[in-house]
Amino acid sequence: MSKKIQLIDMIYAALFAVLISILGYLVIPLPFSPVPLTGQTLAVMLAGSVLSPLQAGLSLITFIFMGIIGLPVFSGGASGIGVIVGSNGGYLIGFFIGAVIISLIRNKSNSIPLLIVANILGGIIIVYILGVLWLSFITKMGIYKAFTLGALPFIPGDIIKAIIAAFIAKRINALRRKAISY
Asked: Which parts pass through the membrane (predicted)?
């Protein structure tokens, strides 16, 4: 059973691709890590928590392709294929897979605990696994060092983002349901 992509899917995908891009400008470089602290993970969690799996996937594909073609959408305004094949590329691919997984786990539920669990599994664990493995491969550092530099410092902040995303998504989802019922 295939689902046709409808105009609303493209609109939501575009809106969230822009949101992810904008929050990429909220950057805090860390002197001890090649990976900066950004607002993009919050936007990725929101995409998964609000959109359908198709819409979430489209939004992240759109975001990634915007960056590949040269639009300054990656963290700090970076762009180009070099970002994807560089030390941060695994995190970007993790964003795509993570957002879809969040949406699949959520499955139209608006439960705060489920949204938090979905955000932690998709938005933190999946993103970190892919990001750390890629960081280790590209930089030739061991997995332990890649985890220590590319994941460990971000865990507390990303858990807070997962909780914030759950509460924002609950409100957005409630407003969308109310608007549809009119």
From this structure: 7-28, 81-105, 112-137, 143-168
Beta bridge pairs of residue 28 = 37
Q: What is the pLDDT of residues 105-128, one digit of tens each?
A: 999 899 999 999 999 999 999 999
Is the pLDDT assigned to residue 173 strictly greater than 80? yes
Give the angle subtended at the CA of 107 by the CAs of 105 and 111, to the nearest 5°: 85
Residues 6+ apart with CB under 8 A from 11: none
The whole-angstrom separation of Cα 173 and Cα 62 is: 22
d(CA 163, CA 119): 8
3-state secondary structure of 81: helix
pTM check: above 0.90:
yes
Residue with structure tokens 């689902």?
A: 3
Tens digit of each residue's pLDDT (9 = 90 or more) over 136-166: 999 999 999 999 999 999 999 999 999 999 9
All domains in the chain, ordered by first residue: 7-181 (1.10.1760.20)
Backbone angles phi, psi at 85, to 5 degrees: -90, 0
How does residue 133 score in pLDDT terms, banded at 50, 70 and 90?
Answer: very high
Cα separation, 98 vs 53, whole angstroms:
10
